[in-house]
Design brief:
13 strands; alpha/beta; two-stranded antiparallel ribbon; Alkaline Phosphatase, subunit A
Length: about 425
C-alpha cells in the first residue's frame, strides 16, 4: 500500500484480519493455495449471479460521482475538485469522474446507475470495524455470518462452488457462515496438493478416496465435497483464459480479478455470488487531480476493468449484477495534503442485469463546508442491497438482513 497513513488500515491485510473469521466457519479444507469451506454438496445449478466489488480503504464517492450542482463541493476542494466541464454522464447535478468513461456504454444502455449518500446507519470511521459491520449487515448480532452467506442459504442450489471469492485464500466477512464457498486467487489455483503432473498414476487421489469415501468422520462430507468441487471446476479450467469479444482488462490487479470472475461465470458451474476487492482507496494524501495522483489511477482501473468484464461476458452479462461499495466515504473538505480524511456517506454503483440505469438515485442531503463536514447518509446501504437481492433472487430480505425494514428505492427492475 503506497502512502497509506492510517496505521489501523496499513496493519490489515485481507489474509490477516479475515483468517480468524474463516477458521470459525464449519469445516475447512485447504489444498494448494485454495481454501474451501464445504458441506455435503448436490449438483450445480445456474441462475442469476451477483458480483460484489469492495473498494477497500474508503473510496471518496464525491470524486467518483461528482455533485457539480452543489457549489459547496468546489468551495471545499479548491485544489482537487473534478472540473464540471470534464465530467461524463452529466445531468443537472451529478456526473461521473472522466476516468470512468469506459462505462459510458453501460450508462447509455441503462445498465449503470449510482446511488449517492448511502452508508451505515451511524458513522463508523474505523476501517476494520466498518468493513465488518457492512459485511455482517446484522447490527447487534453475535453470529459470525455475513449477508452473502445468508443469501446463499436462501437461493436454490448447494454446490460447493455457489459462492466464490477471488482472492488470496480467504474470503471477506460477507461470505463467512455455514453455507459453502470457495476462495482462490485464480482458476488455475484450484487443485488438490500432490495430484499433479508428477502423479501420473493418480495415486494421490486414489489414496484420498480410500481414506475418506467410506469414513464416518465429520470431515468425510467435506472431503467428498472437495472432490466434487475440483471435478466441477474442471469446466471452468476448460473455459478459454483469453477474454472474449476483444475485452481488454489492462494489467491491474482488479483487471486480473475480474478476468477470473468472468471465467467462473462462463464456466457455468453454479456460482451465484462472487466477491472481489480493489484498493487501496485510503487517500489521506495526494488524492490528486485529473493529471496526477491516486484517484485518477484507481478510477481508471475501475472503469477499464468493469467495462472489460461486461464485454468479456457478452450475452452472459444479462444474468450478472455488479454492486460496487466501500466501507465509508471521505470528508467534504480537502486537507492540507491534497487528500481527504475519514468521512461517512458514500456512493454505490450498480451495473448489469436488472439495474434501473442511466440515472442517479438517492436523496441528496446537500454539503456543508466545515472542517469536519460529512456527506450525510440518507439511504441505508442495506436498502440498496435488499432491492438487488429481492429483484434478482426473489428471496426474503428479512432472512438476508435480519431486523431491517428496507426502503423502496426503485434502483432495480424486473428482468
Amino acid at each position: 500500500m503506497d502512502q497509506t497513513c492510517c496505521p489501523e488500515y496499513a496493519a490489515i491485510s485481507r489474509r490477516g484480519f479475515l483468517t480468524g473469521a474463516a477458521a470459525l466457519v464449519g469445516t475447512t479444507t485447504v489444498f494448494g493455495s485454495t481454501l474451501l469451506t464445504v458441506s455435503p454438496a448436490a449438483a450445480a445449478t445456474t441462475g442469476p449471479t451477483l458480483v460484489v466489488l469492495s473498494l477497500r480503504g474508503a473510496a471518496d464517492g464525491l470524486s467518483l460521482v461528482v455533485p457539480h450542482g452543489d457549489p459547496v463541493y468546489y468551495a471545499a476542494r479548491p485544489r482537487i475538485a473534478v472540473p464540471a466541464a470534464q465530467l461524463v454522464a452529466k445531468d443537472g447535478y451529478f456526473g461521473l469522474h472522466p476516468d470512468l468513461s469506459p462505462l459510458l456504454p453501460l450508462w447509455q444502455s441503462g445498465k449503470l446507475a449510482a446511488v449517492h449518500a448511502t452508508g451505515l446507519p451511524t458513522p463508523n470511521r474505523s476501517h476494520f470495524a466498518a468493513m465488518e459491520e457492512v459485511e455482517d449487515a446484522d447490527p447487534g448480532s453475535a453470529a459470525r455470518v455475513g449477508w452473502l452467506n445468508r443469501l446463499l442459504g436462501e437461493v436454490p442450489g448447494t454446490s460447493p462452488l455457489q459462492g466464490f471469492s477471488v482472492g488470496g485464500g480467504v474470503a471477506p466477512t460477507s461470505l463467512v457462515g455455514p453455507e459453502d464457498y470457495l476462495s482462490a486467487g485464480s482458476v488455475d489455483d484450484l487443485e488438490i496438493a500432490g495430484a499433479d503432473q508428477w502423479d501420473e498414476a493418480g495415486g494421490r487421489l486414489r489414496s484420498l478416496h480410500t481414506l475418506w469415501d467410506g469414513a464416518s468422520s465429520v470431515l468425510s462430507p467435506a472431503m467428498r465435497a472437495t472432490f466434487q468441487a475440483t471435478s466441477q471446476f474442471e469446466a471452468v479450467k476448460a473455459t478459454p483464459a483469453t477474454p472474449a469479444n476483444g475485452a481488454d482488462y489492462g494489467s491491474s490487479d482488479l483487471g486480473k480479478a475480474l478476468r477470473t470472475a468472468a471465467r467462473v461465470v462462463k464456466g457455468e458451474v453454479g456460482t451465484q455470488v462472487i466477491t472481489l476487492d480493489h484498493g487501496d482507496w485510503d487517500m489521506h494524501t495526494d488524492l490528486g487531480t485529473l493529471e496526477w495522483g491516486r484517484m485518477q489511477r484507481l478510477a481508471k482501473e475501475l472503469g477499464t476493468s468493469l467495462a472489460a468484464f461486461f464485454t468479456d461476458l457478452g450475452e452472459r452479462g444479462d444474468q450478472v449484477t455488479v454492486v460496487v461499495l466501500s466501507e465509508f466515504g471521505r470528508r467534504v473538505q480537502e486537507n492540507a495534503n491534497r487528500g481527504l480524511d475519514h468521512g461517512y456517506g458514500n456512493v454505490m454503483l450498480l451495473l448489469g442485469a436488472g439495474v434501473a440505469g442511466g440515472r442517479y438515485h438517492g436523496r441528496w442531503p446537500g454539503l456543508t463546508n466545515e472542517l469536519d463536514s460529512d456527506v450525510l447518509v440518507t439511504t441505508d446501504y442495506r436498502s440498496v442491497l435488499a432491492e438487488v437481492v429481492s429483484t434478482r433472487f426473489g428471496v426474503s430480505t428479512a432472512s438476508v438482513f435480519p431486523q431491517f425494514q428496507p426502503e423502496a428505492l426503485g434502483v432495480m427492475r424486473a428482468v
